[in-house]
Amino acid sequence: MYLIRSLRQDDLRMVGDELRSGGMPDKHARRLEMQKHGSCTYLIAWQSDAPVGHLLLKWTGPEQEPMRSAIPDCPEVGALFVREEMRSRGIGGCLMENAEHVVVSRGIHQVGLAVGIDNTNAQRLYRRRGYVDVGFPQFTVSWTYLDKDGREQIEGEECVYLTKHLIL
Question: 53 with 5: CB under 8 angstroms?
């Protein structure tokens, strides 16, 4: 079974070693700082003593319009990741379930997420869990990373926005 819990300071080195940053060397430390300031909860999935996945639950809601204006108080799931050799074992579902419980524990009845239109595996997971497209137009999500030579690069993907009504 998997243990899901928020990242702790003493986990940082192991999480950084086991869940590689993919061109973002301080990703986990930045997310831990965000968590300390209350803007997110950074969940880590553990199998025995090894981290095998993560999920970032952003309390600040969607960053992009029109979602930001339409559902400003809707927490947003992002950065769902499971180590490649551990995929299709229910870890992503466990992370999602835990995130939903955290949202409900705060008395919030809705959660949202952006998913790439070409990411059929993720879409299948989210739709199985009850997430639906509520009609926002497609939009581009972009991010920066450092390539193998240490140069900053920009990447992006076309996304749809899904939400789920949670039972309190």
Answer: no
Q: What is the DSSP letter of 36?
A: H
One-letter identity of residue 162? L
Give the Cα separation of 142 and 13 in Å (integer). Answer: 27
Spatial separation of the C-alpha atoms in residues 60 and 106, rounded to whole Å = 14
The C-alpha atoms of residue 114 and residue 62 are separated, in whole angstroms, by 9
Residue with tokens 């137009």: 137
- Which residue, among 106, 124, 114, has the nearest Cα to 166 in the 3D structure? 106
Q: Is 158 helix (H, G, I), strand (E, B) or coil?
A: strand
What is the pLDDT at residue 147? 78
Q: Are strands 110-116 and 76-82 parallel, antiparallel or unpaired?
A: parallel
Which CA distances in Å does 149 have to 23, 130, 145? 10, 41, 11
Tell me the whole-structure pTM to 2 decimals.
Answer: 0.91
In the beta sheet, which residues pair with residue 50? Answer: 47
Q: Give first-to-last CA distance, the chain, whole Å.
A: 26
- Pick from 123, 110, 122: nearest CA to 67: 110
Mean pLDDT by 10 residues, the chain (168 residues): 94 88 77 97 96 97 94 95 92 97 97 97 96 95 80 89 93
CA R_g for the chain:
16
